[in-house]
Write a structure and sequence with these properties.
This protein is α+β, with helices and mostly antiparallel strands and 118 residues long. It has two helices and ten strands. It folds into two domains: 45 residues; 60 residues, CPE0013-like (CPE0013-like fold). The longest helix has 12 residues. A five-stranded mixed sheet has the order 8-5-6-10-9, with no helix packed on it. This is 4Fe-4S Mo/W bis-MGD-type domain-containing protein. InterPro entries: CPE0013-like_sf, DUF1667. It comes from Thermovenabulum gondwanense. Pfam families: DUF1667.
Length: 118
């Protein structure tokens, strides 16, 4: 059965409203994009949506350290990733970009520090 989903492209400030027609995760038509990047964004958003995860983990002294994924991860794995991070404790010093946790939620993508802490 054909389905339609309208997504708002977030690749650039234009914010194209793109209509995607699909069946069983197979794209039949994409309309409304003004560029190829919008086409690619809409296709991925329907077939396999991904998001950056930004959150905090505890330092050993109880303070919070902001962290993020190196690249977007599948949207359906965000809660699993958060669960894996809830008991992580980091020993200072930490430099921005240091890997805090490798292979989060089995994605092959690392969690890295978003700022330095001495």
């Amino acid at each position: 059965m054909l389905k339609e989903k309208t997504v708002t492209c977030i690749v650039c400030p234009t914010g194209c409203r793109i209509k995607v027609t699909f069946e069983d995760k197979k794209i039949k038509e994409i309309a409304g994009n003004q560029c190829k990047r919008g086409f690619d964004y809409a296709k991925e958003e329907v077939i396999s949506p991904k998001r950056m995860l930004t959150t905090t983990v505890f330092l050993e002294n109880g303070e919070l350290l902001p962290v993020k994924t190196e690249k977007p991860i599948p949207k359906e794995l965000l809660f699993k990733a958060m669960e894996e991070l809830k008991n992580v404790r980091v020993k200072p010093p930490v430099r921005m970009g240091d890997v805090i946790k490798e292979n989060i939620a089995g994605t092959g993508i690392n969690i890295i520090a978003s700022r330095s802490y001495n």
